[in-house]
Q: What sequence folds into this?
């Protein structure tokens, strides 16, 4: 039971990191990324290749420590986002959404077909634990520390002038441009930063499960569920992003227990489709009934102009 | 040379399928102003409906096809009434996210009802017809002819019926269309019906060309979107040209690169278009 709890919390925390990454893109800057799985997969594979021992089947043998893997994962995911962003930030959000679908398709094809790089469909095994003598519990502790760090940085960024510019772009792009802000540069920054966080989540995932293959990065679990998490939790709200990840992952895991006990055996194979259906319907209900999510966005309150202040010039 | 012509033929076949899909995306985009991510899965639904009617129930295939298109149109209209209609006052991106969810709902329902195995409309291999040294499968000829008939039908509908004219007016300018007394909700319903019929045909043709599985529509969504953008998003005529160009380009690409990367060609064309001419070859929105 305690093992299951640790397992649950670990996966939920990884999803929370993903959800925070998407929050920087969608919640702050209104950037539509439908290819989360691509950045997640690039991060996972980058870290796996860098940290695993030598293999005759695919490139690698660097045997680097986890921290190097995580940095490479973030760098590559960020680079990918930078390249896609260069082409698409100037365009309307629909185009970016379509381009990110393209990126996830390309990444999927490369993972499957370029065996020299990724070992193809057989995947990469033996990805080491970050600690020398690690246990699931020590991994969870590391993960919670990383999650806290990502949370702190993105919450700080939200309140900073940087986050304010992003919110302004999201609400009124021409006005922000008129205020002299380089809109394109800010959007690109948000897209790259969010994707780097997703790459980091990928690295964490790879080191947690120890084995990755292209199958692990299906759009349903790597992209769709993250969107539901962020929208359910409250896009734009860092606490909401984390709450949404835990809540939706709770529902997902809860329904797994339910379907494996309640449904007749010949329905088990279809249970996964039934649970995805439930999550899909849940998204529609949230969008219709509570679009702001469980914890709505709370932008920092502007300073009250009527409040007497010693800085105020009295007329 | 014969190999080259053979690839051209395959390109026209897959181009016809993509064109039918892209027309639907373009129609819904023109009227509702959002990229419908559920369009690929609507195609899949059409393909499965036709399978149940034509193969399981044993109706004549063409009758099953027509009824399946009706059922697909009904699915699209009901989805619109239940979800999209209520989100229409929100920013279009919310509709896009919602359609992404609808896509998954469709796919899950298909897996629940039909399972996830591959299905085929026809057992065994069809004997190809030799024509000028080319191998043409009868099904593939059917696909091309079917696409031509449907596109012609759509053209006549858009040009000569009152509803078609209203649709074009609304795609040009919603406010102006409202001022002239066009019932916009009715036009929206018709847009879904037409888009879904095209989607169903694209799905059935894709099933005829290859086989039927729950992710068939999702897998072609990227080339369909690329074709739509290539033709100018929101322009149904451009979408037809875009579909053909994309089908030809991805078949001909197999001369140079591994066929595994056919989908990457769609993406490369998309990126090139976005850089050079994001409004599409023929100017869209």
A:
């Amino acid at each position: 039971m305690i093992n299951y709890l640790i397992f649950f919390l670990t996966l939920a925390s990884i999803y929370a990191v993903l959800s925070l990454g998407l929050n920087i893109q969608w919640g702050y800057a209104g950037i539509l990324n439908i290819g989360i799985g691509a950045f997640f997969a690039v991060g996972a594979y980058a870290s796996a290749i860098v940290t695993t021992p030598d293999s005759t089947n695919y490139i690698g043998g660097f045997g680097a420590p986890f921290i190097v893997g995580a940095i490479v994962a973030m760098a590559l995911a960020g680079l990918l986002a930078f390249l896609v962003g260069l082409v698409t930030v100037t365009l309307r959000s629909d185009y970016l959404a379509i381009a990110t679908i393209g990126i996830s398709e390309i990444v999927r094809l490369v993972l499957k077909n370029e065996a020299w790089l990724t070992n193809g469909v057989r995947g990469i095994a033996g990805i080491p634990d970050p600690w020398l003598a690690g246990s699931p519990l020590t991994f969870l502790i590391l993960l919670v520390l990383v999650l806290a760090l990502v949370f702190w940085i993105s919450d700080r960024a939200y309140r900073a002038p940087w986050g304010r510019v992003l919110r302004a772009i999201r609400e009124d792009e021409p006005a922000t441009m008129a205020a002299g802000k380089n809109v394109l540069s800010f959007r690109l920054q948000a897209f790259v930063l969010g994707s780097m966080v997703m790459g980091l989540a990928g690295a964490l995932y790879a080191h947690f499960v120890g084995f990755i293959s292209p199958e692990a990065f299906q759009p349903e679990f790597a992209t769709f569920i993250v969107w539901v998490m962020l929208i359910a939790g409250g896009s734009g709200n860092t606490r909401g992003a984390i709450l949404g990840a835990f809540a939706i992952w709770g529902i997902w895991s809860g329904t797994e227990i339910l379907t494996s006990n309640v449904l007749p055996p010949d329905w088990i194979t279809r249970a996964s489709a039934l649970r995805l259906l439930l999550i899909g319907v849940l998204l529609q209900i949230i969008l219709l009934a509570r679009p702001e999510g469980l914890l709505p966005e709370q932008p920092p309150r502007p300073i009250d102009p009527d409040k007497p202040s010693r800085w105020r010039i009295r007329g | 040379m014969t190999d080259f012509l053979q690839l051209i033929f395959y390109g026209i076949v897959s181009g016809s399928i993509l064109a039918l899909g892209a027309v639907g995306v373009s129609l819904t985009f023109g009227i509702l102003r959002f990229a419908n991510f559920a369009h690929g899965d609507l195609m899949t639904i059409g393909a499965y409906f036709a399978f149940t009617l034509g193969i399981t129930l044993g109706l004549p295939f063409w009758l099953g096809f027509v009824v399946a298109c009706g059922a697909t149109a009904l699915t699209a209209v009901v989805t619109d009434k239940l979800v999209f209609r209520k989100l229409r006052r929100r920013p279009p991106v919310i509709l896009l996210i919602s359609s992404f969810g609808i896509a998954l709902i469709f796919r899950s329902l298909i897996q629940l009802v039909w399972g996830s195995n591959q299905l085929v409309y026809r057992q065994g291999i069809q004997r190809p017809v030799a024509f000028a040294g080319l191998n043409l499968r009868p099904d593939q000829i059917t696909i091309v002819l079917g696409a031509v008939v449907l596109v012609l039908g759509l053209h006549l509908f858009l040009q000569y019926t009152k509803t078609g004219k209203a649709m074009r007016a609304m795609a040009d300018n919603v406010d102006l269309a409202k001022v002239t007394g066009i019932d916009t909700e009715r036009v929206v319903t018709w847009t879904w019906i037409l888009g879904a019929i095209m989607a169903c045909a694209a799905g059935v043709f894709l099933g005829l060309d290859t086989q039927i599985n729950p992710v068939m529509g999702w897998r072609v969504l990227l080339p369909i979107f690329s074709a739509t953008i290539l033709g100018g998003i929101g322009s149904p005529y451009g979408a037809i040209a875009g579909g053909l160009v994309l089908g030809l380009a991805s078949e001909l690409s197999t001369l140079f690169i591994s066929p595994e990367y056919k989908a990457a060609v769609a993406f490369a064309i998309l990126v090139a278009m976005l850089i050079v001419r994001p409004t599409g070859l023929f100017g869209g929105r």
Observations:
- The longest strand of chain B covers residues 129-131.
- The mean pLDDT of chain B is 90.
- Chain B touches chain A through 44 residues (CB under 8 Å).
